[in-house]
Amino acid sequence: MRERDVPQEGNVTLAGHRKAVYAVADDGRVRLVASRGWEVEEIVTRQAIDDLERLAREAHGRAVAGLTSPLEVHMYRARMDLALLSQSTGLWRWRIRRHFRPQVFAHLSPALRQRYADALGLSLEALGRID
Amino acid sequence: MPPFAHQHASHCESGVMASLLRHHGLPMSEAMAFGLASAVFFAYLPFMRINGLPLIAYRIAPRGIIKRLHGELGLGMRFEKFASPREGTPRLDELLDAGHLVGLQTSVFWLPYFPPDLRFHFNAHNLLVYGREGDEYLVSDPVAETVVRCARADLEKARFAKGMLAPKGLLYYATGKPSAPDWAKLGKRALARAAATMLRTPIPFVGVRGIGLLAWQVGRLPDSDHSRMYVGNIVRMQEEIGTGGAGFRFLYASFLQELAELTGHKPLEGLAARLVEVGDRWREFALAAARMIRGRDPFDGRALGARLHDLAADEKKFFGELDAAQRAWAC
User: Fold this and answer.
1) Which ipTM value was assigned to this complex?
2) Is A40 close to B228, i.e. CB distance below 8 A?
3) Which of A23, A58, B81, B261 has the most CB atoms within 10 Å of its CB?
């Protein structure tokens, strides 16, 4: 890649930041150039984010219909899956899956709620509601 | 000790080590740190899945660069892990107050200064802390253009995130003063190690054989959403996550040029130019894949597989020549 070919396409995923890439300058030396992004990177990053957002949206729909608890929604919003939430809280997966049932979630002990809130980076109050 | 000077880099680990070495008086570019650690790599690990997609790596395992440079340059690095922030935070404060430049392993997801779209649960992100003010740490994150600040609570969450490659509060700092090494001897050894890994690792997932295996796998992907996620994941590992472009190939080419200049070993110049060409082929692969993901071109797994197949051949040839140049280098 030549220095003048370094993409400066203003990716939204970089949020105004510039990333360092390496390219060949006119004197033939490979050196660091700050880039505003390449559309290719934006496409693949948005693809991954869109997939996570779809999971959160679907869980939200189920939560509104009373089929799952807010916990599942917050798990996907925090870009986690069951495996990672299990590792982050130290709880068995089947236990977390049980807490996805709204009636079980409603009667969780304060200690367990705190554990989920910490792992997800939420306040206790935010854990209990979806908006 | 002079005041700390931040430098922008493409990759966190090589950037951290270059800054750390410079701070301790040994001039070092990111490319040099990357190359001397033989960090150029390829692995396709179908049995390690993240969100259902296989792990693809274009560089050696996390912490490999730190460990190899520590071994080669006599940095006297100390590594410390902690069970909880209760022990980890006071120790960090203590080291900073004593004037140390401290490296940390963190999770990208919990770092608030990162662009929101890039905050994934990746646990092996390296950064340097060069001081603190009240409840804020002064952070030099190599992939950021300038220094940043990070609140204590956020940094604690980032240091003690759980999951794959959990950092466990890891911090590291240098106690020795690195002396200028014999660049030719060190360089030759680094080239030999990189070529051996890429050409002769006796498992089919690593090196040029790994690229071949991935080519075969991509070649049989049907036209489906999962296939688009699958190739999107490859491109993300190659371009998005701070590789300097083309999965670290341009960065390694920069190292070859610098080593040639430093030691006067001319054949490395030609090899650098060759590797830039190979890197351009990787970028073309990424572009073709992105067009299919976006639906501008119909999905064609066989065409993408064929590109990867050619790349495997290109890299086999390149690393073969690198190996020959390294053997012919009398030093």
Assistant:
1) 0.92
2) no
3) A23
